[in-house]
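Fold these two proteins, one after the other.
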Amino acid sequence: MKRHLIRQLGLGAVLFVASACLFGLIAEDVVAGGRLTLLDEQLAQWLHLSASAEMTRWMLLVSQLHATGAMAMYTGTLGLLAFKKQQWRRVAMLALCMGGGLLLNVLMKLAFQRARPEFADPIVTLSTYSFPSGHVAASTIFYGLGVVWVFGRTRAIHWRVLVLAAAAVAVLLVAFSRLYLGVHYLSDAGAAFAEGVGWLTLCLCALAVWWPEAPPIPHARVVVHAPEQTNPNP
């Protein structure tokens, strides 16, 4: 058990450091107005000029399904189901990862106060700050939790690969929808992904140390004894 915890914390440390470094590099470039911000502007203008009515409808749907209110509803539903089953650790995990992640994103927005992309004819107009993307951060944490739960319940490679690919596609789709709608830059999405991975990793490592998951109760073995045979000829 200790060896498993050490491996888990080691992997968590690597993921946390990597995500923190990625967030730091992106944030430094954004604050300094470096090369990444030039790519931000070019990509934002190209996506805006390439927009179509049909694509806009789909991207609006994806964005609305991953808005803060929607993600809070999904999390609350899962939390209520876990509460009814008295799965207190899962309730705490949802509250800490999702609730804390959304709060962290708000604090990051207030710290950087980056304005959103501007267009003469915007598709969507928002007055809040842009960096980092709340939609992408929340999606990264939410779908990341799904990956963690599946990995914890099966060792089958095909299921693990499938859920990891599905989560990656979902997060990428959410990120693209926000860029397409012109409410975020590429660096906003990249920083939000790093933020989500870092926060999720930190929460999971903290829970592993302070509230380890109980091992499954082994099934009782039932031993059936064959009836004794009597010798008909004593």
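Now the second one:
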Amino acid sequence: MLLITSAAGILTLALLVTTPARSGGVQGGKIMPTAARISGSRGVGRSAGASRVAAVPARRRAGSCAMATNAAGYVNPLGLAIVNPKRIDQGVDYAGSGKLTALGRGTITNVATATTGWHGTYIEYQLLTGRDAGCYVYYAEGVLPATGLHVGQTVRAGEPVATIIPNSSTGIEVGWAAGQGMISYAAKTGQWSPTHEQDNIPSAAGLYFSALIASLGGPPGRVEG
């Protein structure tokens, strides 16, 4: 169950109970149903990891991130982009153009552009500062890595790490990552399932990331379920 309140235009979210995945396994960033694919589900049926560069070992387990909405030390990752917010799912979906920047100072842990399990690129970095130091952030689907971006690279807050592909049919997705493979935090912790995908039920992790973007002056995603 999620408790959502609003104060001064900034969402404060309290994660009480999340719903575990009902069936299937995790592949790439998405949940795989055991019997039939969910119509329109992104990432289903794709293999993950073929082009994945070895990630930096995780310093924090997937279930231990605070997912704070405190903006101190962070910058709006959409500040150099013009975007139209879409639904909140595992993370937050957007359509648009421009560049995606690092939320805070971090270390690039994954850069993959093919067979990612997502509809396109998967970029991940681990935050080194702020309330969520040690947690992972992903930018996925209709994006291209910044020139020369590589695993092990340190990026500063506000530094471009990806370019949005204009008019991409998939749009982009940003959110909290698990820091293991190319899996979202929501998928790893059982907040995302084929039922959530089909019924447009937002994950707690997606709601938190949307609230953080809003607290930094960016456009939050939309709850469509």
